[in-house]
Amino acid sequence: MIGILIITHETLGAAHQSLARHFFPDAGFEHLRIIGVDSCEDHADIIGRAHTLLAELDSGHGVLILTDIFGATPCNAAMKLVEPGRSVILTGLNAPMLVKTLQHARDETRLEHLAQSARDAAVKGIMLFDQAL
After folding, report:
1. CB 95 within 8 A of CB 108
2. Which intervals hold domain PTS EIIA type-4 (predicted)?
3. What's the helix, strand, coil split of the chain in %, to 5?
4. CA 21, 87, 89, 79: dihedral to nearest 10 degrees?
5. Where are the alpha helices (DSSP H) in 27-94?
6. Distance CA 21, CA 13 (A)
7. How many angstroms from the chain centroid is the CA of residue 39?
8. pTM of the model
């Protein structure tokens, strides 16, 4: 099982966790943790909390870290957590990314494969409609 750590601004991660419970009401989510970053939070504190959760989540197959906005504080803190083969970051968290990640994190053993599948789902989930159907 691959662990999932979501690091986002304020309560955005908690909202995604609530959405996950909507899609997967019977899932235990023991492999998912959330860090909501407050606007005045110290960078070192965020990294410290994340290191603790990474240790809890890594059952030997690594941890996929999902963040909301590339270049923002949650992402910048997460960048300090990347360890090849143990943790990777995927930015731009959206609902399709989350659903794909949760669908496959329990059975997938290759961290990079899960990250790529989640990224593909995120991109494919973005559609532009300029006319009513």
Report:
1. no
2. 1-126
3. 45, 15, 40
4. 130
5. 43-57, 73-79
6. 13
7. 19
8. 0.95
